[in-house]
């Protein structure tokens, strides 16, 4: 099967998985696009908010949704010694259940260490979560434990000063987990029914926080990570292709559309020119079957948010909050405009609009297309923040450890009529109840 036809199947499968009542994983079905209808365009701290609930700890992962349930992950405690997976009712925000556990690997609270950063994945059988403490946990939709694994116990302690953030993906009966670390690094496929290994392949020590992406009708696992991009076979973990020589691609994950892989990169050790060259478009199966660069960005960089491809345009967001729009085919810059804040969450495409969720709670909605046109600017909070608290108090009480600087918007999910937004310790439903 050629890559183009396989990519079409990817689109079809993604559309089916990312139906209007599900948001199954990181970036939805992996493309940060939604078919949900009647999504809110305008809101404020006091308007168009259906409900707002506190979570039992702090987390940087995105919420995931299956039908009438929202699932979130959090951690708490002075040394991140408590972990939670929580289910809330989509309509009312009521907590339905919570699963508590003791993470295998502990870490003190810090601004620079991840806290429940990997986003879980969900299907019709269960919810599957990976934590930077090394634990992988599978629960059914009622909160009953299906199986658990400790990758730290199995393969050794994680050795990353900033923690891990790679979100798992599902393909068939496999949960794909990426551990790119200063210590043992590997790509792992776990059976979703039992938690046992289907396969495991070692990777070079990388130290990245990107997530794997499924491509080609789930025929490839694409990983952009600290200097390179690679494709693996989901059936057995075989390396299909590899491309090295990039700079700064340690946080944004790749975006895949058709025969193209879009790589996002930050400034990487301050080398802006190298990072701009690394914001590029690759054809993995190019001449002689080897990857080739179709274009590089001249100015655009991506810091935290992954690139978004929508309607023939590619969107990058820099650390300074500048949105770059490039033509997918040629890489030609369409515009570069500043929005009201830096984005840690990847922008989401919804029909005619593209939503940019800044970490300061301001969402800029623009028209999709080659011209920059702001539709709305919405502030989820008015700078009130949370009550100031010391980090130990915050971790014990489930409050925001960064309360002195206000809450931080980390991730979103979309379903018909609503955005589900999470800060470190709070979950919001934007839209009518």
Helices and strands in order, then pairings?
Blueprint: H1 3-17, E1 22-23, E2 49-54, E3 64-66, E4 69-76, E5 82-89, E6 95-101, E7 121-122, E8 127-130, E9 135-139, E10 145-150, H2 151-155, E11 169-171, E12 174-179, E13 185-191, E14 197-203, E15 213-215, E16 220-225, E17 228-232, E18 239-244, E19 255-257, E20 260-263, H3 272-278, E21 280-283, E22 292-296, E23 308-310, E24 313-317, E25 322-327, E26 333-338, E27 348-350, E28 353-357, E29 362-367, E30 374-379, H4 391-397, E31 409-415, E32 418-423, E33 426-430
Antiparallel strand pairs: 1-3, 2-33, 3-4, 4-5, 5-6, 7-8, 8-9, 9-10, 11-12, 12-13, 13-14, 15-16, 16-17, 17-18, 19-20, 20-21, 21-22, 23-24, 24-25, 25-26, 27-28, 28-29, 29-30, 31-32, 32-33
